[in-house]
Amino acid sequence: MNPKVLAAGLLAVLPLLAVLFLNLGRDPHAIESPLIGRSAPPFALTPAGGGPAVSLESLRGRPVVVNFWATWCVPCFQEHAVLVQGAQALAPGVQFVGIVYEDEEPRVLQFLEQRGSTYPSLMDPEAKTAIAYGVAGVPETYFIDAAGSVVTKYVGPLDSRLLAALVRKTRGGT
Amino acid sequence: MRLRRPFLGALAAACLFGGAAAQAQVPPDASDAASVPSPGAESAASAPAIDPGTVVGPPRGQPLAAADLEARSEEVAALLRCPVCQGLSVADSPSSMAQSMKRQVREMLAAGYDRAQILAYFEGSYGEFVRLEPQLRGVNWLVWLAPIAGLLAGAAVVAWTLRVPRAAMSPGSGERGAAAEPAAESEPLPGPDTLPEDGRLAAYVLQVRESVYGWPGGHAPVANTPVAPSSAPEPAAERR
User: Do the bridges between strand A64-69 and strand A95-100 make them parallel or antiparallel, or are there none, so unpaired?
Assistant: First the structure.
């Protein structure tokens, strides 16, 4: 083979192979949130069904688990049970908050009535809070430490072991 | 379509959101043609909006209204990627999430935030991924310069390829010809009557010339033109 052609081919292919191998261990679904390590965006939202607004500021002083969910999201069904159980087991040291993403309030109320809940689910008019948190789908869960900083974010449904591990990480960061 | 860099959109969508649905779900209307505002949002008590000023500082521009506001909203929304879509801008997407983002863009423009502040606000939530046009900094330069470099490299290859045969056709006419084909000066070029060294092949060539051109014995009927290689045997004699 012509050495010049071989060199040109290697020059074109090697950078692509390098990019491929360098990213082999990376999860393409994982989009790094710029909020990690920064103050969590504040919110003050009304719970589904009415009542006084719940603000992030009012929960300062203990870790907060903020879960974005919707009734049309199938993985949220299975995750809901995990969160309800987790909120019960970890209370009052850790506060759980659900924020409804792109959904209708009557459906949310029906869902909560059927499946029960141990933490408030807040309505998010015009998805402003979801936008502020950089939500791109549900379920997404943000773990906020007692000082109000985002420690980590998880995309997808949580199981009880993962939830416990991430809460532990959030507590350790305080 | 208002996508300024379709290739960037496709690349990022393939890399980042290729299988996102496996982990998290997007609203059911994300790919629908029609977008319906969330009734839940309307029925909920109005909540205080998150102040973008805490992220990007006080507004630096003039508050916009009416036609200016609409035009600028479209312009800025076209620069933002819809996070629940596949490579669509917020301006192009019919999803309710994109509509919410567009509404927020409009509100920020009406409050006097400029384009850079609005893009920075969304980037603060979603990261640089939300920009359809990555900023010219760091490794992003590659995205802008690599296509130009590829084009120049392609042009260089084409020019180099075209240069070789031209040089070979004009041996001894200059330095380029000599450099491209060093052997051209030392070896004579084949003439119209040159025969191959292989005797059998030479016989066939003569036969073909005779039948096609009508040349007697396959040789051109012009005085002192036949230039047969010294090693080639006389084809007619060989056949006899």
Answer: parallel
Determine how β-strand A54-55 pairs with β-strand A64-69.
unpaired
Are A136 and B83 in contact (CB < 8 Å)?
Answer: yes
Most A CBs within 10 A among B125, B130, B161, hence the mutation to make, goes to B125
Q: Domains along chain A?
A: 35-172 (3.40.30.10)
Over residues A1-59, the pLDDT tens digits come to 688 889 988 988 998 899 888 888 777 666 689 999 999 999 999 999 999 999 999 99
Q: What is the CA radius of gyration of chain A?
A: 21
Provide CB contacts within 8 A for B88, sequence distance 6+: B3, B9, B81, B82, B98
Neighbour count for residue B151 (Cβ, 10 Å): 10
Tens digits of residue pLDDT in B117-145: 999 999 999 998 899 988 887 877 888 88
Across all residues in chain B, what is the average pLDDT? 73
A123 against A22, higher pLDDT:
A123
**CA angle, corner B80, sides to B77 and B86, nearest 5?**
115
DSSP string, chain A: --HHHHHHHHHHHHHHHHHHHHTTTS-TT----TTBTSBPPP-EEPBTT--S-EESGGGTTS-EEEEEE-TT-HHHHHHHHHHHHHHHHHTTTSEEEEEE-S--HHHHHHHHHHH--SS-EEE-GGGHHHHHHT--SBSEEEEE-TTSBEEEEEES---HHHHHHHHHHHHHT-
Q: Do the chains contact at B47 and A127, CB–CB below 8 Å?
A: no
Q: How far apart, in Å, are the Cα atoms of B129 and each of A17, B87, B171, B177?
A: 23, 11, 57, 53
Between the CA of residue B20 and those of A28, A155, B130, B187, B196, what are the distances in Å?
A: 8, 9, 15, 67, 67
Interface test with A, best of B23, B93, B103, B151 (most A CBs within 10 A): B23
Return d(Cα A73, Cα A123) in angstroms, integer: 16
Q: What residue type is assigned to position A37 of the chain? A: G
For B84, nearest residue in chain A (alpha carbons): A136
Q: Scanning the structure block, which residue is given the tokens 């502020």?
A: A132
Which of B13-27, B30-44, B194-208 has the lowest average pLDDT? B30-44
Rounded CA-CA distance B20/B82 in Å is 14
